[in-house]
Amino acid sequence: MRILRMGSLGPAVELLQLALNRAGFGELDTDGIFGSATDAALRRFQSANGLAPDGIAGRETHMALLPWYTGYTVHKIKKGDTLWSIAGMHGSSVAAIELANPGIIPERLAVGDAVIVPLPFPVVPVDISYCSALVGYCVRGLTVRYPFISAGEIGKSVMGRPLWRLSLGSGENRVLYNASHHANEWICTPVLLKFAEELAAAYAAGESIFDQSAAEMLSYAAIHLIPAVNPDGIDLVTGELQSGEFYRQAQSIAANYPRFPFPKGWKANIRGTDLNLQYPAGWEQAKEIKYAQGIRSPAPADYVGMAPLSAPESRAMYDYTMALSPALTLSFHTQGEVIYWRYLDREPPNAERIGEILAGASGYTLEDTPYASGFAGYKDWFIDNYDRPGYTIEAGLGTNPLPLSLFPDIYRSSLGILVYGALVT
Fold first, then answer.
1. Reported pTM
2. Contact at 8 Å (CB) between 81 and 109?
């Protein structure tokens, strides 16, 4: 997290405001503008936590705010502590503490031992703009709160940001879901993160999700999620990346293509390569089409790159998919409320039937990919390489980037796709 002070702007400020609200130090508008109200709330928080009340969110302040970024705190056992008293102290519950601390024995709490305490709010926020740091906080919080979720990195972005993976379930039916190949379609990232949290919570409580037993779902399937394929681009579009060499490079690239508004029209990775035109399935045809449209060099969108898999983000997706060999993939994009299911004339077994189920669960329409967009995408390569069902989900309606006000509708429509995608192969 960058240093924040009066006048700072962007998603990191939104997260700071959210954390201060969660911690009980204000009822701030999460508008991403560090003004006088945010300054006053931050100073109150700093004073209460033994920090210099200077109104600057630097390293020490961010560390103190970490529980309200990630959704959990660590409690050191003192004499007389019980799980019930610890839960009451932090607004948590005994069940949540026991879940986050496998093997804990309430009658054998030892003074000085550390106990993880989930805090009383969801880990994944759905009402603030996203940045790469927030994705990392969500991954950390989810895996601590729900230890049966595994996480790791499948690679790194151009700027060295982690490409995070979350995995749930032990079944033989391996499926792989990804989001935000395109930077200005970042609203799909919280879709996958919220799904992971809701599925984990339902599993822990013995409940259902989208009328399906979470326990049965996770015994049948192993669900792998890559919530942010393009973290650098997300930071650029949402305003978290505001300066520095990479920002200036992106500005220079955008200046060559003024028809794409900067930075809102940016789809590519930070070097101007469209990650969903990087896969070895008709890449030469994609190059011919995009060159004919005038995209012959790094651009905010539609530049195919120097060669297939030349971008580290697409290479990481390719390598992870090859290692996993999933039965089905879902790629979340915006917008159009359609599901694309074929690559050219390739129709993998059961792909149309499954696509119809996904369409029925979401209210979206099942369609063929338009020819001009029908090459070198992740879905295209997966179908071409494996002859298994792969789908591109174009969620929501409007102009990218879609506003967060549409998130509830997008998530509601996506949930059935996410659930049935793991069950209907």
1. 0.97
2. yes
CA dist., res. 81 & res. 190, Å (int): 36
The residue written with tokens 């789809």 in the block is 267
Residues whose CB falls within 8 Å of the CB of residue 28, separated by 6 or more in sequence, listed in order? 17, 20, 21, 37, 38, 41
Could you report the per-residue pLDDT of 151-205, keeping only the tens digit for each?
A: 999 999 999 999 999 999 999 999 999 999 999 999 999 999 999 999 999 999 9
**What's the CA gap between 211 and 203, in Å, rounded?**
13
Active site residue 394: yes
Structure tokens of 265?
């029209």
The whole-angstrom separation of Cα 250 and Cα 235 is 12
The dihedral built from the CA positions of residue 258, 261, 265 and 269, taken in this order, carries a sign that is: positive
Q: How far is CA 61 from CA 6, 15, 27, 283, in A?
A: 15, 13, 19, 47
> What is the C-alpha separation between 279 and 33, in angstroms, rounded?
39
Q: Which of 14, 197, 240, 394 is catalytic?
A: 394
